[in-house]
Amino acid sequence: MFKIFDGKPDHPMFDAKEARRLLAELPKDDPFRELEEIASWLDTVKGAQGFRPEVRAEIIMLLDETGQSLYAELLQLYLGTPHLQDFKGKHLWQNLYNIMQTLSEAYSVCVHEYQQAEKKSFDHKELMPVICVRQLRAAAEQMKLQLMHYVDIEQAVWDSLGSCYNFAETNQIADSMIFAYPKQAIHISPQRELLLALMLYESSPGTLAPDQIEVSFRIAARMVSFFDFKNSPDPDCAYCFDLAKPDAPRRVDANTQTTPTMRFFRGGQGSAQSSRYHRSS
After folding, report:
1. What region does 97 belong to: left with phi over 0, alpha with psi -120 to 50, or beta?
2. Is 259:265 a contact under the CB 8 Å cutoff?
3. How far apart are CA 109 and CA 50, in angstroms?
């Protein structure tokens, strides 16, 4: 645990300005090592004592933004690796998974600290829809990587999705449309981000190759505004997800005992056609 000295956390990244300076010193010729360093910083920042909640959130968001292009570069490298299950492929996959797992945990800390704060500044409140979207996206990336690796989705992923979205609904920001990252041109909300993760799971059977799973994810991201998401049972919504008991979504049938914490969803007609085309191609 870190101690507090002179009103500042005993951590090298004690504020955003210092975080930027340290990030600028990271090696620029080794994306693998650079992403490892960012994951390490995230791990220590999320657990360090003495940060004001809004300062911790600002530093975590900065680390996240710095790592996004590196993650995308290494993911493409992973998908282009001829033997994904050899040592190099597994090591690369683990590096990608570690950053998304740590990122999801870091944003979960931000959400928890916001909940515990007695006084919430306007700026801190304004950050929360972005933080929720980013936590949900990090959990979705974990899911995507596990699907690519043909392993079961860890319970922690479902827990992250359920608890984060439940927070968003409770704080009436589930429908807030925001830009998840600087320079992105597409608005997204916590609700749509959750729905994207759920549809990814339902549309990515074990027969798809890793690069096909990535394509499915991108198609779903473009079609998510056409998906249906309901707070109560609907004849057109074939799947449900329980926020109180997060687990893999399941089909709704005559034996399904509905509860107020269940959410019901389906893909739109356009997305279904895209999915059929994708699977047959």
Report:
1. alpha
2. no
3. 13
- Name the residue with tokens 């027969």: 207
Torsion angle, alpha carbons of 129, 130, 132, 137, to 10 = 140
In this structure, which long-range contacts are made by residues 13-20, counting pairs with CB atoms below 8 Å and at least 24 apart in sequence? 13/41, 13/45, 13/59, 15/55, 15/59, 16/55, 16/58, 16/59, 16/62, 19/59, 19/62, 19/63, 20/62
- Whether the CA torsion 249, 253, 257, 259 is positive or negative: it is positive
Each residue's pLDDT expressed in tens, for the chain with a length of 281 residues? 333 334 567 678 878 898 899 899 888 889 999 999 999 999 999 988 888 999 999 999 999 999 999 999 999 999 987 777 788 888 999 999 999 999 999 999 999 999 999 888 898 999 999 999 999 999 999 999 999 999 999 999 999 999 999 999 999 999 999 999 998 888 999 999 999 999 999 887 778 899 999 998 998 898 999 999 999 999 889 999 999 999 999 999 989 999 999 999 987 654 433 333 333 33
The DSSP letter of residue 11 is S
